[in-house]
Backbone:
């Protein structure tokens, strides 16, 4: 069995059998993976504290080619986010970013930019740098972009014209973005103004380190959040169809 080593962000851990745990982690090298940590719920196990969500750990694990579940051998905590653990609001925000990785990425498909994006966003939250709503919006935007499912906010998908500075509408059911002329009053659609669309487009070129310099009002954050959130729900539905939840958990891995 090949032995592997990686730095990984722990997304979720749940008990398995009497003394074991299964953990879902994300690393730049492996993408989202699941690992069995034998005996990790025992009092004396060093792995017990390490395999908690919102920890970056170094994992050493064994992999069998025929199985999706790896066997974790040792762990060492590399980084924690103590400020997130002290505040319910920040903890909820941090857990939401993990949820984005969990639901928005496909098993075993490494996307190093996704790993860097979320870990950098967690550091900003932990350091109290930047508007937390803006950090969330930035991660949502880039998750959609990196997965190739971001709606181009500058173009109407019905007539092909630029949406300019006017209002436009996103229909979550059809996953379609149209200009004011193509939107009929009775059609469902989330309205978004030109200024907020331009703000979204500017995120493409903005390094995450510059987020603390940016201002975003609460109403703008809500409108942009709804626009991206509707696209994310659509993406989550498609991503979950691709996930291969095989019989790994019922097997006897290792
Ligand atoms: Zn149009």
Residues:
């Amino acid at each position: 069995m090949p032995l592997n080593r990686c730095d990984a962000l722990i997304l979720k851990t749940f008990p398995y059998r009497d003394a074991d745990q299964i953990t879902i982690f994300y690393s730049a090298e492996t993408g989202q993976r699941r690992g069995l940590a034998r005996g990790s719920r025992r009092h004396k196990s060093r792995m017990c504290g390490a395999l908690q969500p919102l920890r970056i750990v170094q994992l050493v694990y064994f992999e069998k080619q025929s199985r999706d579940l790896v066997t974790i051998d040792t762990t060492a905590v590399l980084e924690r986010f103590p400020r997130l653990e002290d505040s319910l609001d920040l903890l909820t925000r941090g857990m939401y970013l993990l949820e984005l990785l969990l639901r928005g990425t496909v098993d075993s498909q490494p996307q190093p930019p996704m790993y860097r994006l979320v870990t950098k966003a967690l550091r900003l939250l932990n350091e109290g740098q930047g508007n937390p709503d803006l950090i969330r919006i930035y991660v949502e935007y880039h998750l959609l972009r990196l997965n190739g499912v971001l709606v181009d906010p500058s173009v109407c998908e019905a007539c092909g014209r630029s949406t300019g500075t006017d209002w436009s509408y996103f229909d979550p059911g059809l996953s379609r973005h149209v200009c004011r002329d193509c939107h009929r009053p009775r059609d469902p659609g989330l309205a978004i103004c030109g200024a907020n669309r331009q703000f979204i487009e500017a995120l493409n070129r903005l390094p995450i380190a510059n987020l603390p310099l940016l201002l975003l009002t609460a109403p703008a954050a809500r409108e942009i959040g709804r626009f991206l959130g509707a696209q994310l729900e659509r993406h989550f539905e498609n991503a979950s169809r691709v996930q291969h939840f095989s019989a790994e958990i019922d097997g006897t891995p290792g």
User: Anything to note?
Assistant: Residues 156, 158-159, 161, 178-179, 181-182 surround zinc ion (CB under 6 Å). The chain has a mean pLDDT of 90. The first helix runs from residue 47 to 50. The first strand starts at residue 3 and ends at 16.
